[in-house]
Amino acid sequence: MHEPEPQFEELPDLLVARLQRADRSQGIVDPRTDRVVIDDARRYFASRPRRARLAVMRWALPLAAAAALLIAVLVLRPFGLQRAADDVDGSGRVDILDAFALARSQADQESVDALAARIVSLGAQRSDL
Amino acid sequence: MRSRSLAVVIVAIAALAASFGLLAQQQAAARFAVVDVYVDSTAPLAAWQFELRERHGEMQVVGVENGDSRAYTQAPYYDRAVVDRGAADRIIVASFSLRPAAELPVGRARVATVHVRLTGSAAPDFQLQLVAAGAADGRPIDAKITLDTRTGR
Known about the structure:
The complex is a heterodimer of chains A (129) and B (153). Chain A is mostly helical and 129 residues long. Chain A has helices at 13-24, 31-86, 96-104, 109-120. Chain B is of the alpha+beta class. Chain B has a single domain, classed as Immunoglobulin-like. Chain B has two helices and seven strands; from the N terminus they run αβββαββββ. Chain B has helices at 2-29, 80-84; strands at residues 31-41, 47-54, 59-66, 90-96, 107-118, 126-134, 144-151. Chain B has a four-stranded antiparallel beta sheet. The model of chain B has no long low-confidence stretch (mean pLDDT 87). The A-B interface holds A 89, 91, 95-97, 99-101, 103-104, 113, 116-117, 119-123, 125, 127-129 and B 46-49, 51, 53, 77-79, 82, 88, 90-96, 98, 127, 129, 131-132, 134, 138, 140.
């Protein structure tokens, strides 16, 4: 049976004394430390939403521009193409002379009637009067 | 109590009379008119398009019929759906003829007749614009457009 050796008796007295003091010491809780930690935490969390907002703002402009472009393409392009296609005589305006030109080109009656219907439509045309 | 009943009866009679008066006024204000549209051209008229409206918006187009020329056998083009719905406060009318130039009208010719319902009490102020006029070869031509009005049914 091995007997444990008394360790403290082998350490220097000065070290033993310091260790005993350290063992008795308590952490000093300073209110200023608390305040610094709290302020630091607040700053940290306050900065997070702002960064998130900035990230959204960074994408908002390109997204809005893309949406506007898409809407413009979807809304304006079909009418523009339709009007360009209806300008049979190439006069720059669509009127009965275009339907007349289409009829003179031996086009089928259905196409001529459809073009004429678009020309006299009260819904699509803007009045010049 | 008796006087209260009498007052109610008097008010009811007054309201009834007022509604009859209003109805009669509306019937008197609403009337029909016929608008004959003429195009005057020195060149044979092969195609035409006009727009008619009433300045005060007190017009409802109820029908469109063809003009006098035998060169235009088909009914003119107009927005029949809107007219049939009773929602045409203006009208765009157009037509063309593939007949040879010799058979096309020259000079003042009635191209269409527009039947309208007028709702205002004032005299109508028609605005008529010749949108397009073309010769037999398809080129645009200068022409003058006028109208005559008649009392409708």
